[in-house]
Design a protein that fits this description.
alpha/beta, Quinone Oxidoreductase, Chain A, domain 1, Rossmann fold, six-stranded parallel beta sheet, 18 strands, mycothiol-dependent formaldehyde dehydrogenase activity
C-alpha cells in the first residue's frame, strides 16, 4: 500500500515550488523507504528549480537528508527498519570499470530506486539526485542509505549527504591536503566553508579564505581559516598577489575554487605554488569558457583536479566524519543556520540567494 505524504515539488522552470501530495510505493527488490527527519536546502535544489540540471519536470526536490529506515524490499540484507542513515547519491555498483579498479568513489553506474514516486494523479516525479527528500518519507535504493551513529542530530548529519561532504572531500580526498600545507579557498559559502573545515581537520598550517562577502569570511574563521581576504572590487591579479603575500610570496600548496567561474579558476591556478594543486569544486555553467596560455600549464606543473561529491565513498567517509563530529573535532553543527518547516523551502531559496545562510534545514 503506497504511503501518501506531503512533499516539495517544482512543476515549472523558474516558478515557486509547491507543497503537493506524493505517493511513495512500497519498496521493491533492493529498495528502501526512509522516514526523513531532516533535509538541508542545497544550491543543487535551486538549480533543479531553475532548469539548470535538466528539463525533466516535475521535480521532487531535496537530497541532503538523514532519517530512519521504515521498510526494506526483497534482497536487502545490510539494512533493517530502525537504522539511522544518511542518504547519498553515490550508491556504488561494484561492477563498473572504476569499481573493479578499486576506485569506487568514481563509480560510473550508481544505483537509484527503480520505482518512481508520483503525484496523486499518477504523474511521475523526477527525484533530485535520485533521492527527493523534501517529504516525510522517500523511496531510494538501499545502497543510498549509509548507516551512522544515531547519536548524531539528523539536521547536522544530513548535511554530509551533499554540500558539506563536497567541501570536506575537496580538501581531504581530492586535494590531499596534509599537515603543514598552505591552503587557499576561493568562495566561502557552504561548500567553501566545508573545504576550510576539511583543511583544518587535515592539519593545514595556513588556511586563507577568499570571498567578496564579509559575513562569509567571518564564517570561514569559525571553521578554521587563519587568514581572510575580501576580494570585493579586486582584480584577479590582486587576489593572486594577496594569496602569494600570505604564503611567503610562493603561493598556496592547494587552492580550492568553490565558486566555479573562469575568473576564480584563473585566480586559483596562478595563486598556487609551483607544482601546487588546483581543485575545482564549484560548479560552472555549460556556457562558461576558459582561455589561457598553454605554456603556463606546462611551466607551472602540479595538478589540476575537479572534485565531484568530494570524491567521497559514503560507506567510508560518512561514519568517519560523524564520529569526528561526535568527538568535537569537526564542527558540523555550525553549518546549520536555521531549522525550517517543509513549507519554508521557497523562502529558504531566497535567503540562500542573498547569502544570508550557510544552510537552512527542513526538520520533520
Amino acid at each position: 500500500m503506497p504511503y501518501e505524504v506531503q512533499g516539495v515539488v517544482s512543476r515549472v522552470k523558474g516558478e515557486p515550488v509547491s507543497l503537493e501530495t506524493v505517493l511513495v510505493p512500497d519498496p521493491g527488490p533492493g529498495e528502501a523507504v526512509v522516514s526523513v527527519q531532516a533535509c538541508g536546502v542545497c544550491h543543487t535544489d535551486l538549480h533543479y528549480r531553475e532548469g539548470g540540471i535538466n528539463d525533466e519536470f516535475p521535480f521532487l526536490l531535496g537530497h541532503e537528508a538523514a532519517g530512519v529506515v521504515e521498510q526494506v524490499g526483497a534482497g536487502v540484507t545490510d539494512l533493517e527498519p530502525g537504522d539511522f542513515v544518511i542518504l547519498n547519491w553515490r550508491a556504488v555498483c561494484g561492477t563498473c570499470r572504476a569499481c573493479k579498479r578499486g576506485r569506487p568513489w568514481y563509480c560510473f553506474s550508481t544505483h537509484n530506486a527503480h520505482q518512481p514516486m508520483t503525484l496523486a494523479d499518477g504523474t511521475k516525479l523526477s527525484a533530485a539526485l535520485g533521492i527527493g527528500a523534501f517529504l516525510e518519507k522517500t523511496l531510494v535504493h538501499s545502497g543510498q542509505c549509509t548507516k551512522v551513529s544515531r547519536e548524531a542530530e539528523p539536521a547536522v548529519a544530513g548535511l554530509l549527504g551533499c554540500g558539506v561532504m563536497a567541501g570536506i572531500g575537496a580538501a581531504i580526498n581530492t586535494g590531499a591536503v596534509g599537515r603543514g600545507d598552505s591552503v587557499a579557498v576561493i568562495g566561502c559559502g557552504g561548500v567553501g566553508a566545508a573545504a576550510v573545515a576539511g583543511s583544518r581537520l587535515a592539519g593545514a598550517d595556513r588556511i586563507i579564505a577568499v570571498d567578496t562577502d564579509e559575513r562569509k569570511l567571518t564564517w570561514a574563521k569559525d571553521f578554521g581559516a587563519t587568514h581572510t581576504f575580501n576580494a570585493a572590487g579586486k582584480s584577479e591579479d590582486e587576489v593572486v598577489e594577496a594569496i602569494q603575500e600570505l604564503t611567503g610570496s610562493f603561493g598556496a600548496d592547494v587552492v580550492i575554487d568553490a565558486v566555479g567561474r573562469p575568473e576564480t579558476w584563473r585566480e586559483a591556478f596562478y595563486a598556487r605554488d609551483l607544482a601546487g594543486t588546483v581543485v575545482l569544486v564549484g560548479v560552472p555553467t555549460p556556457d562558461m569558457r576558459l582561455e589561457m596560455p598553454l605554456i603556463d600549464f606546462f611551466s607551472r606543473g602540479g595538478s589540476l583536479k575537479s572534485s565531484w561529491y568530494g570524491d567521497c565513498l559514503p560507506s567510508r567517509d560518512f561514519p568517519l566524519l560523524v564520529d569526528l563530529y561526535l568527538q568535537g573535532r569537526l564542527p558540523l553543527d555550525k553549518f546549520v543556520t536555521e531549522r525550517i518547516p517543509l513549507d519554508g523551502v521557497e523562502q529558504a531559496f531566497a535567503r540562500m540567494h542573498s547569502g544570508d545562510v550557510l544552510r537552512s534545514v527542513v526538520t520533520f
